Amino acid sequence: MRFLHTSDWHLGRSFHRVNLLTAQRAFLDHLVETVRTRRVDAVLVAGDVYDRAVPPLAAVELFDDALHRLAGLGVPTVMISGNHDSARRLGVGSGLMGQAGIHLRTDPAACATPVVLRDAYGEVALYGLPYLEPALVKDEFGAARADHAHVLGAAMDRVRDDLAARPAGTRSVVLAHAFVTGGAPSDSERDITVGGVESVPAAVFEGVDYAALGHLHGCQTITDRVRYSGSPLAYSFSEERHRKSMWLVDLDAAGTVTAERLDCPVPRPLARLRGKLADLLADPAHDVHEEAWVEATLTDSARPHEPMARLAARFPHILSLAFEPEEGAARTLASYAQRLRGRSDQEIAEDFVAHVRPGRGVDDEERDVLRSALDEVRTDDALREVAG
After folding, report:
1. 338/342 Cα distance (integer angstroms)
2. Is 281 helix (H, G, I), strand (E, B) or coil?
3. Domain map of the chain by residue range?
4. Which pTM was predicted?
5. Any idea which architecture 2-263 has in CATH?
6. DSSP state at residue 128
7. Distance separating alpha carbons of residues 50 and 35, to the nearest angstrom
8. Judging by DSSP bridges, how do beta strands 14-15 and 18-19 pair with one another?
9. CB 316 within 8 A of CB 322
10. What are 124-161's pLDDT values in tens digits?
11. How many helices (H) and strands (E) does the chain have?
């Protein structure tokens, strides 16, 4: 059986000030054409279909069009909600959609109820595990602790129990939205840390033939059977070196996995340039970046006159400008966003305490208080989304 594994579409998201709906439409055109020409048996979408719980109408229309086209090809699609999605909104109409071959899995309680497909070698059970917010699903799964490892482990126990009750030789695929240990993050994923921990071990997926993962935006192989497709488009300059793609996965009669990486359309390359303004304007090595989306970091000791306008004359698609003077003390001029890049909510909170209380950072007790407060805020946000 052949699957096309994709995730993290983030429909409705922009890149700095650039609207990406046209690029997202081009990606979905590419996906539908790939399904048709590569004789795909099922499409797997591992969460974060939308970029926010209440997406803009244009993003909903794009999603609706993609589902109609996939259903028109007669190719089943299995899709889970991610941490950016509203599980309740995404799941509206799932019963009716399932009759058309579009299987939305947004309810944690139904994670052990698979979509069962059949090929010449027998059945394949596809289990959709939507994003599991630990504090909200701990009781549902009877997990020992409200953290990612325990709730995902409990969900996978249910999957393995269901699989064990099926005919011998039944092959299995799991879709999940999580941060698996060994994966490489970027700046554009939302922090899902709970209790100071955000990752789960790859061993949690033991017993299934393939785990189609979403959440991390870089395409990567954790093991031969556990893979991230990554996002189809870049959503931050930290993804400059990403090769955006999907996995074409073949599952043979014995459950052996063969995966081929298929490139996605690139609307415009990314470039992160650093140096003095005069050098960026004159260096011929940057000719190749003149049509790219550019993030420029200037290292001049004094802020140049009208730097954005001058850079735009050479790089008309420049989107971001930061200042990091090379001289020691002047580094404080770096932008707020630059200083926060790559840092977790916990680290930012601890840095703030150290900043307002010079000479003494947080101790272990204070660190635990901050962690509990951040977990509570995250849980409250999730509860409001469920209630809304």
Report:
1. 9
2. helix
3. 2-263, 270-340, 345-387
4. 0.85
5. 4-Layer Sandwich (3.60)
6. E
7. 21
8. antiparallel
9. no
10. 999 999 999 999 999 999 999 999 999 999 999 999 99
11. 11, 19
